[in-house]
Every structure is written in C-alpha cells, then in structure tokens.
Amino acid sequence: ARYADGKGWYEARVEARAPIQMDPASAVLHYAQEIFEGLKAYRNADGTVTMFRPDANAARFTTSATRLAMPHLPEGAFVESLRQLITIDREWIPQDDESSLYLRPFMFASEVFLGVRPAMEYLYVVIASPVGSYFKHGIKPVKVWVSPNYTRAAPGGTGAAKCGGNYAASLLPQQEAAANGCDQVVFLDAVEQRWIDELGGMNIFFVYDDGTLVTPPLGTILPGITRDAVMRLATDAGRAVIERPVAFDEWQADAERGRIREAFACGTAAVITPIGEVRFEGGSFRMGDGGSGETTMGIRKQLVDIQRGRAADPYGWVEKVF
Ligand code: PMP
Which family does it belong to (predicted)? Predict the structure, then answer.
C-alpha cells in the first residue's frame, strides 16, 4: 500500500513478489527512514494456521512509526494485511513441526527528495518466506561476545524502535562477535558501557540460583514480544521476575560463584536459546556447565507448546488465521 501526505493510504493490493523500481533519490536510500517487524505463521497438527500475538507486533510497528516520524497504518490494517497474504500464500506454509512462514512487514520513505525532513510519501510492504528450524541439529547453547567498542542505542535514540538503522549499526559488532568465535553480540549501554542491554537480535534473561528471572529494563532496548511472553509465563508459574539493570562485571562474578546459574536469549527467530559461554576482550566464562539449563529449557517448552497449539493458551496469544 502507498501513502502520501494529504491523500492518506491508497493502492492496497496483493501481488506476486517482484522487484520494486526506486528512484536513486528516494529518501529511504539516504536517511534510512524505514521500520519493520518479524513474525511467523504456524501450521498446527490439526491443520489450522495461527500467528503468535500479531497485535503486539502491530502495536510495536505503530510505536516505531512514531519514533521515525512516519504515518500510522489504519486501525487493524497491519494484522489484516498479514491475514490476506497468509491466506493467498497458504501453499507456502510448511507442514512440518519445526518450520513456519516468516512474515516481514515493513514501511519506508519512498518520496524522491534529498532534503533532511520526514518524507511525505511511503510504501508499506509485506513479504513472506518459509523458514526452517533455527537449530538444525537440536538446540545448541550459543556463545556470545561482549562488544568492548560498540553500543547499539543511546538514551533518546532509536533503540526501542525496530528500524533498519539500528541493525546497520550492529553489523560491525556482529562481525566482531563472529571473528571471536561467537554467535551473537551482547551490547552494553551507551552511557557507562557497563550495563547489559541486549543481543544483536534477541533480549536476554538471567536465571538466579533461587529461581528468580532477571532481565534488563525497557528504555534503549527493543521491547521484545518473546521477552514479554517469558515474563508473563514465569510470573504466572509463581517465579519472581525482576526488570533491573545488570552490570557486566556482576554477571561475570555471579556466574563464577554460581549465583547466576543460567542465561538465555529470546526472540521470534529462535524463541529461547541457552547461552553457554560468554567471551569478552581478555577472557571468558561459562554459564553453568555450558549446556542447556533446565529452567531455560522448561520455559522454552512451555512457550513453544502454546505457539504450536499443543498447550492451552489462557492469554489469547494465538490468533487463528483459518
Ligand atoms: N532485540 C532485537 C534487537 C531484535 O532484533 C529482536 C527481534 N525482533 C528482539 C530483541 C526480540 O524481539 P521479539 O521477541 O519481538 O522477536
């Protein structure tokens, strides 16, 4: 669908995937005025097709649009656009239990204009693509690299928005993580470079020896929908869940004396991933025995079972498409 100031949204349509023609002076190519979302459609054992909390993605898309000075979609249009695409692309939704149809809604400034100001024309697009299991050979704990040089988001910046520019800034630290044998980068806060923010594409939780879950507070991090679901599930299971800043030196000290027993990353792509080892400039430490922790795997199973329609969904998180 297209948007123009004074005209509103128009030309909403579903068409075969094809290249988009862009003028070289399209605003997005110069100032990165772009936002996106990522979610999945699942085919369940009984043949129904569902999405997980699409309303939460719609709400975050709106928040991101506000931060990037972009127009909002009409009420309900985000979820409706996904429903239409999934219904038309139903043959593309994988059958097997491990796979899903990945949905990528995004919006960008299409106005042909080189001045630095919010554009007056936008394009909203959704692409869909089948994706397999994140872990091909069973769940494997990941190694993470604590970036000494780069941060992801400063207070007052765009860290809480899902915009392309944030990811442009995280490519080099992610490359640095890979060069150090790690799967993901861990970002520290931009002010003191001391407090844990999040990973390149996932939020983070710590499991303490008394069973308490601790996760960094919202502000500069992306408010993950998986993070929110984990907090709700754990709280309702009677577990203490605390949002508070965790310093990197505290993580290391508490891991080494066994106070923090497990750590895990969470996000739409891999749901919940145990963190086995933490590497940083000048050292490393392991989480527990470096394997997949019991608490982490328990929460993972609970969440995946709800997402896949294998367990009751008292939260109304699972939305049926057909
Ligand atoms: N943080 C970042 C930087 C991310 O890219 C993602 C993935 N969207 C997340 C956290 C996790 O968010 P969600 O659970 O909504 O996928």
Answer: Belongs to the class-IV pyridoxal-phosphate-dependent aminotransferase family.
Specify the pLDDT at position 133.
Answer: 80
> Quick check: 119 pLDDT over 80?
yes
Question: How many angstroms separate the alpha carbon of residue 207 from the centre of ligand 1?
Answer: 20
pLDDT of 150-202, one tens digit each?
999 999 999 999 999 999 999 999 999 999 999 999 999 999 999 999 999 99
Q: Looking at ligand 1, which atom is closest to the CA of residue 170?
A: 3
CB of 41 closer than 6 angstroms to any ligand 1 atom: no
CATH class of 142-307: alpha beta
Q: What is the DSSP string of 200-263?
A: SS-EEEEEETTS-EEEPPSSSS---HHHHHHHHHHHHTT--EEE---BHHHHHHHHHTTSEEEE
> Closest ligand 1 atom, CA of 222?
1
198 lines ligand 1 (CB under 6 A): yes
Strand partners, 198: 187
Say if residue 47's pLDDT is above 80.
Answer: yes
Ligand 1 pocket test target in 222, 230, 272 with most atoms within 8 Å of CB: 222
CATH of domain 2-131: 3.30.470.10
- pLDDT on residue 4: 98
Name the residue with tokens 């996106």: 36
Closest Cα partner for 33 from 163, 170, 168? 163
Whole-number Å distance between alpha carbons of 3 and 9: 4
Query: How many A from CA of 115 to the centre of ligand 1?
Result: 31
The distance from CA 153 to its chain's CA centroid, rounded to whole angstroms, is 15
Q: Please indicate whether the domains covering 2-131 and 142-307 agree at the CATH topology level.
A: no
Task: Determine the residue type at 141.
Answer: P
Strand, coil or helix: 28: helix
For 228-244, write each residue's pLDDT tens digit.
999 999 999 999 999 99
Domain residue ranges in the chain: 2-131, 142-307
